[in-house]
Structure formats: structure tokens, C-alpha cells
Prior knowledge:
- By secondary structure, the protein is of the alpha/beta class.
- The chain folds into five domains: 57 residues, DNA polymerase, domain 1, CATH 1.10.150; 73 residues; 124 residues, no CATH class; 198 residues, P-loop containing nucleotide triphosphate hydrolases (Rossmann fold); 47 residues, no CATH class.
- The chain is 54% helix and 12% strand.
- The protein contains 28 helices and 14 strands.
- Strand 10, helix 24 and strand 11 form a beta-alpha-beta unit.
- It is elongated.
- The chain starts with 10 loop residues before the first helix and ends with a helix.
- The structure holds adenosine-5'-triphosphate.
Amino acid sequence: MDLESIPGVGEKTARALSELDDPERALRAGDVAALATAPGISQGRAARIARGAIRHDHDDPGGFLATDRAREIYREVLSLLTERTVTDYAAQRVETFYPSSQRSRIEQVQTFAREAITREPSRAVLDALTGVEPLATPGDVRVRERCLATTDAERYAAAREAIPELSVEIVEDAQGLAELARGYSTVIALDESFTGVTVEGDVQVRPDALDHPAEIVPERPLSFFARNRDRITAAIAVHRAADIDPPSDCDIDALEDGLSRLEADGTVAGDDELDRLTVAVDDLDAAVGTAETVANDHLREAIRKEDVTIEGSDLLSLVERGAGVDSLLSRELADEFAAAVAAAREHLIDALDLDSGEAEVARRIFGDEPTFPVERDEDATARLREDLTAAKERRAGKLKRDLAADLADQRAGARDLVRNALELDVELAVARFADEFGCTMPEFVWGADSADTRAGFGIEAGRSPLLDEPLADIDPVDYDVSGVTLLSGVNSGGKTSLLDLVASVVVLAHMGLPVPAEHARLRRFDDLHYHAKTQGTLDAGAFESTVREFADLAQGGEGSLVLVDELESITEPGASAKIIAGILEALAANGATAVFVSHLADEIREMAGFDVTVDGIEAVGLVDGELEVNRSPVKDHLARSTPELIVEKLATEAGAAGADAASATAAESARTNGGTETVSEPQFYTRLLEKFE
Ligand SMILES: Nc1ncnc2c1ncn2[C@@H]1O[C@H](COP(=O)(O)OP(=O)(O)OP(=O)(O)O)[C@@H](O)[C@H]1O
């Protein structure tokens, strides 16, 4: 893929993206998290790039969200999805869902969403997801106790390239190998010519080493698993909790078993022998010190208790020979000394849990020659330390090689496993959104003939996800529009909320996602123009630019959905009605679908040069001073306004109280006022009501 062909990706960004492991995969999968690891690419930018790549794939011209309010609606519904993700990955990934006018893109996401809404977002799965993150690249591994050796300069360069974790040394001959073996625990000779050479130390001849780096440096594959151990373990937990099949290339049990043997620092855990050797190396000095104390305490106690009888001539000869107390010890306390040394050796062997070969070396730390105080033999101690350390490294190396071999085939599986868990989070966010807002998949009318393309939209039992009320408190709304429509209605009847509902349904549907309604059917739109209510009258300049905007819009075509809320507030009512009528005429002529909310519906209808439909959100009555509203617009019906409703109520109440009394009183007053009729209260209401008709 030519990265620069993606909208919004220039030369510099393309260079940054090409530094990723697999930029094409990340772009194709909408893996915003991976894209954001490219140098200098922020998360927001990564999401825009991913959307650009999708648009490129689907030949999508973009620009579906044509106004600020349309973009706001998109951000709001998107945030409802984001709030329902657990991982940062999923939160970024949902940013790649955007409303598209392209059927192929809509259907692509629909396929994903249909599957997603069947998922069960259980607490256990959501909890397990908290530990899942995209896999991290382990830091550079350096292994100091092993080296590669060769006599050949070319092989030297190849080795440095293939196995950068180890030092590579040039040697002349076997003598050189022997010298290296003194400084390294293991030397791996790369030249065939060394086969059969015997040198002291751990020297292996492996001409094939560069082809099998994982055998030479098991730390390399292990560092990947060690760095990602917790993430992979969490992904395993997600699969178990959600009861979903692992990817075909992943053996969960083997992976879990391997990970349980791996420490976070890349060493192998849970091996008794390695633990024993590690403790023995660490505790060697302290244990030798304690063994010395054991011997000396023993000997001191024995000497204190002992009555040493020595003949004068013997003493004299000892003194004349300049012999010290050691000779006396060996002569007189040989048994006690032997017992003290035996106790020291036993302590050391026990404390370090040494095997018989190691015990043999350990015994030499305390010699048989009597001395007081008893002291360690430093050379023997160093020898034991070397032996134990070499045994420990051999053991650790073997364990690492075994574990690396066990895990070697699991790497791709682990990658897929984590990816699946992260993708499941995206699906669960969609499932939870759909569940909590009572959503269904919308039905698109794709047809190309004019009857179909004029289908507009139809919503049954829709509930705006932008209302701040619990779902149960929202009245479901039905609304069906094709062509250009005026929507009248009582104050606070829910007109704005209805436009928000229509916009949310249309935006979500074009994102390929479920919509908040029991059923929704709509045509494919090219763009959404939603104009929110303007606050207050605009000054001349602002008014002019608004009219220009609408002039632009009126050029807009058959694929546009136009939602406008109370445009009349931009200027005085008479002029507003004329302007709105003009815009409606143009939109109708161009075949757009439109809903204009207005309190001037009647006036606009009069002025429009075509038969514009007027729907109405009606108050069905007043209950305790509060309007009771039927939130679903009645088709082809101009809604009565709130004042009309109140006058009607007053007229009815006054009428019921005394229509008869009123006419009697009127006749009486006519008489007393010399024929001039005064207007009673019921008459006032009745006449007022007539003016509304
Ligand atoms: N479908 C509904 N179910 C429950 N409550 C609703 C519904 N629609 C709207 N409301 C409530 O009614 C209030 C007024 O709604 P909205 O602002 O949409 O009315 P409006 O007709 O646009 O008012 P105005 O004529 O003053 O502009 C909202 O704040 C909301 O609480």
C-alpha cells in the first residue's frame, strides 16, 4: 500500500508509519494503538489516519458530517461507546467508526456489529479485560555470560548482525578459545574447524548457531513472553470468562503452563534444583562463616572442659622447639578437633543442601590439620563457589532452552489471543451500548430507483441516547419523513430531542452500528446538515453569512438530510417565515430530505410555493398545570400551541361554570347600560379561542 495515498498522510507521516512493524496490518485493522506508537503520531492523529485509510479503501469522499451540530452529535454518540470500553485500545479503536456514505463501509461495520450485539458482557469478562493491553516490544536483551567465537571476519560480522545479544570474539586458534572460556561460562565456537578440539570449560562448537538463534539465546523469545506475561495471562482469562474459542494457532493450556514457569525478569521459575543452586551461591559466604563459628564454639567448649595433663619434659621439648598451641591440639585434643571440623562440614553441607559431589568440595573448606581458631580455606571456598555458579548457570540455561522451545510455537498464537481479547472489548462496548439504549440494527433501503431514494427515514419507538434520563423514563417516539417537512409543536414538547434522535439514528446507522429504536428504516444519505437553534437574533453580518450558508445548502442535493431547529430566531418572524419558505422550496426541488422545526409552521406553509407537509407534536392536555404531550408527531397536522391550549382550557372551565348565567348577566347589563354590551369572562375566552382557529 502506498501510504501517501491515504488522505491526510504526507511524506513525513508516511515515513513515521513505515517504522512500524507492519503498518499495513495496523491500518487495515484500524489498530489506532499500534499506529500511535509511530514516532510523532499522537492518538488523535492515529485515529484520523486510520479513518483516512478506511475512506481510501472504500472510495469514500468523506464529509458526511456537514455542520458543527452534526459533528457534535457524532462525538456524543461516540463518547457513549468509548465510555463502555474497558481497555485504552478499544477506546481508541472505536474512534475508527465514523459515518460513511459508502454502502461497502456501512455493510462492513454492520457485519461486525451484528456479531457484536450477540455478545454477553458479563462482569467476569469485563474484570478480566482490565489486565489486557496491546503486546509490548521487549527491551534489548544482553547476555553477558555467553559469547560467540570465530576465526573468520565475515562470520564475525554475520554473527553480530544475527545475534546482537551476545558478544562476538575473534580468536586465532584453540588456545584463544581456552582463554575465552576462562572469562565466559559458555563459549560457542562458530567454525567447523573447531570440531573435536578439547579445551577446558564449557565450549560448544555450533557452526549452525546463526540459523538457530533461539537455541543460542533462549533469552530472546523468553524476553517477549516475560515482558508480556501479565497481558497474555489476562487475555487467557478473558477467553475463559467469555467462553470463546482461542485462535486456531494458540494452545491455551500449553501457553499458560509455559507462562507459569516464567518470571517477569525472563528467568525460569518453579525449578527446585535451580532454586537450590541459586540459594547455595547466594548463601555460601554466610554459611561458611556460620560453620566456622560452629567449629570454634565446639572446640572452645571442649578445651574449657578438658584437663590437659602434660609431662614437664614434653612441655619443655615443645617450648624448645617453638611449637605453638596447634601442636598441643594435635597431640592432646585430636579427637575434639576432628569432631569440631566434622560439625562445621556437616553444618555447611546441610545449610546449603549440597549434593554429594558438591559436598566433597565443601569438605575441603575445613582442613584436617588442627588449628585454633578454625578458619576456612579460601581457595576451597572459591572453588565451591565456581562449581555452584557453573552448575546454576548450566541449569538455568537448560531450563531457558527447554522453556523457549516449549513457547517457541506459541508466539503468533499469543499475539492473536491478545488481539482477540482487545477486539472483544470493542464488541462488548457495542453490545453494552446497544443493550443500554434499546438498539436494533437499522434497515437500509439501498435501492437506486427514485421511489426508494426518496424513502427518507422511519423510526419506530426511538429513544434519544442524548437525553439525560434513564431509558425507562423516555417516551418512545415514532417518526417517519420523506421529502421536506415542517415540524410544529408545543413548547418543551420534545422537538429538539426528536431532531437529536433522528440525527443520532442516522449517524449511528451510517457508522454501521445499531440505532436506539425498536425499528428503523432509512435511505443512504450523502451528508447530514443539522443546524441547532440559534440563540437570539443575529446581527446583520452573522445573518448574512447564515443566509449564504443556507443558499449553499439549498444547492445541495438529493442525498442530503437537513435538520434545522427554529431557524426563525435569527431574525424577525415575518422575514424568517419568508426565508424558511424559500429554503424549503429549494430543498424540495432538489429532492433533499428535511425536517424544519418551527413555531411559524403555519405562516411558512402559506408562503411556500409548494404543498409542504406540516407535522405536529401535540399536547394532549394539561395535568396539574403541566402539559401532557404526545411525543410522536402527528402526520399532516399543525400542532396547537401552548397558549391556544391554555385559552381553550380556560374557556372550557369558565363555560362549564356558567354559560347560562353569562347570557342572563349579559342581557341584564345591556339593559342597565343603555344597550351597550359588556364582555364577560367566558365570552372573552371564547372570542380569544376563535382567533386561534
Ligand atoms: N421522548 C421524550 N421522553 C421523555 N422526555 C422527553 C422526551 N423528549 C423530550 N423530553 C423532555 O422534554 C424536555 C424538552 O424537550 P425539548 O427541548 O426537546 O423540547 P422542544 O419542543 O424542543 O422545546 P422548545 O419548543 O422550548 O424548543 C427535555 O428536556 C426532556 O427532558
